[in-house]
Every structure is written in C-alpha cells, then in structure tokens.
Amino acid sequence: MPLKKTTPDIVLIIATLSLLTIGLIMVYSASAVWATYKFDDSFFFAKRQLLFAGVGVAAMFFIMNVDYWTWKTWAKLILIICFVLLLAVLIPGVGMVRNGSRSWIGVGAFSIQPSEFMKLAMISFLAKFLSDRQKLITSFKKGLVPSLSLVFTAFGLIMLQPDLGTGTVMVGTCVVMIFISGARVSHFAWLGLLGLAGFAGLILSAPYRIKRITSFLDPWSDPLGSGFQIIQSLYAIGPGGLFGLGLGESRQKFFYLPEPQTDFIFAILSEELGFIGGSLVILLFALLLWRGIRIALGAPDLYGSFLAVGIISMIAIQVMINIGVVTGLMPVTGITLPFLSYGGSSLTLMLMAVGVLLNISRYSKY
Fold it and tell me: Is the preceding omega at residue 162 within 30 degrees of 0, hence cis?
C-alpha cells in the first residue's frame, strides 16, 4: 500500500456536512407541525435526527481513520451478521411493524433497520468477491451466477418484510458493481429480461404496488387514495417557484403531505426554498458523487475501487429514485433522500459509508 495521505478528501467532507446541515434544518421545518400535533413537542423528530446525526458523524470520522482493507478481512462475518438480523426481523415479537412492513428491530422509538445495513455489508463483500475473482467475472457460472445468487438471496429476505425500495437500491448498486468489474454485456442482457419479468411479477403480486403504478401514470384517477401523495407533493413544489415561500412557510406540511419529514422532504424543501434551494441540494449531491468517482478511479487496488463504486452507486441510485418520486417522474417507493430525510438507520448508514469513502481517499492517487 502507498503511504497514507495527511488529509482525506476535504471537498467530500464539506459536501456531506452541508447536506447533513440542510437536512437537520429541513427535518425540523417539515416535521414541526406533525410533531406538535402527535407528541406536543415541535422538536420531537428534530432532536432524534440530531442524535443520530451526532452518532453518524462520530462514526464517519472514526471509520475515516480505519484502513479500508480492514473491511475486506471482516466482510464475510459482517455479511453473515446482517443475514441473521434480516431473519430475526421476520420473527413475530422480535421485528417491529411500521406502515405495514416488518423492517425494524429495537425498543420503543429507537430501533434499527437491518436492511439498511445489509446494503453496505453487501457492497463490502461483493467488492471483496469481485476483486478476488476479477478474472472469473466474464464466466457466467463461476463469476456472475455466484455473485448474483448472493444478492438475490438478500433481496428475497428484504422482500419478505416487505421493502421493495431498499431491495431495489441494493440490487441496483450490486448490478453496477458487477457491470464495471467486467461482466459480459450479453449476460446482462438476458438477465435484464429475466429481472424485468421478476420485477413485474413482484408488482402484480401486491395490489398496493399496482395502485402505485396506476397512480404514477394518472394520479388523478384516485386523488384521495393511491394518487394522494404525489398530488400533494406536486402542490408543494409548484408554488415554491424560483425562491420559495420562505423557510418554515410550507403549507403542505399542515397535514396535507403525510409525514413530510421522510420520503417527501425534498418537496417541502422545494416549497420553502424554491428552485434555487432544490438546485443547491442537487448540486451538492453532484459534487459528492464527483469526488466519489475520483476516489474510485484513484484507488490503489481493485477492492478499494469496487468499494468506492458501490458506495457512490448506492447514494446516486437512492437520490435519483427519491427525487424522481417526489417530482412525479417515478412511482412512489419508500426510499429516503440520503442525509436529508428523517430516519436513524438510513442516516447513520450513509455517514458510515462516507467514512469508508474518506479512508479510501487517503490512499487515492487523485
């Protein structure tokens, strides 16, 4: 390994902390009304988000100083632990049910979502697998099938919760990693067709998913049902205009847009801060992704490159899906906006992932 650099990627740190700061402000602004109504405390969600942000930032700076190849050594054990947690969450009395999904383990208001941590565990293990067997990835039986079998086993457990959004992000991330490792395009073409058929089957197997598709195509066909969220989201974005209504001045957070501090926080941000505020957030994400790509290209070994690509792909896919949903370009899925949406597991996981990326940057050639 080359000598360690004295400092990690400062631009990446600034972009991440800027997004986190905007997120903390917007979680309070978006949730204050709902928190006051439900808990008689306008800071209820903001305080919890601040707590997880503190834990996440501490974890980010700690992991930043842990040599990234350490994760290669422990990748298999970490993946096994995450598989055990995915199984445990399905056990009645152990897993907690929220909004129809059994996705959490914990006590009371404080809980973790194992599927979130499975994403990072899978990225680390797959980076190890692909770097160790890079010459075999062009082989369908020895390279592609073993890697995809593991990914879809995890996807199947996540779907039993069910959590199509998180599962989709994980699969999409892993597919990107496998593709850039040198897998044959012809293999992906056939598997892509099979994947589309399977994805269609998952949608058709659950009536609520079919409603999400139909409401995406025509939300006004069911304005008080499946189309309600997207209509209210567009009602938030539209009046925001160029400069927005002003911080804290959202109208849609007054019980129109359900739980606006989570999946639809970008709609409230656009309503209050307008096109300028929304564009700033997108530019910060673009800056973060650009630095991540540079780190991946300059990593001193294949494991570091694949690991960096996986982390950046996970963030990029999640951002594109969330903003796509909020703006009506994609069907509604339960995917948070990294660093901005309320949610302890998601926020902590993302900051830990950036910590890994920062450590790779200390060895990167760029």
Answer: yes
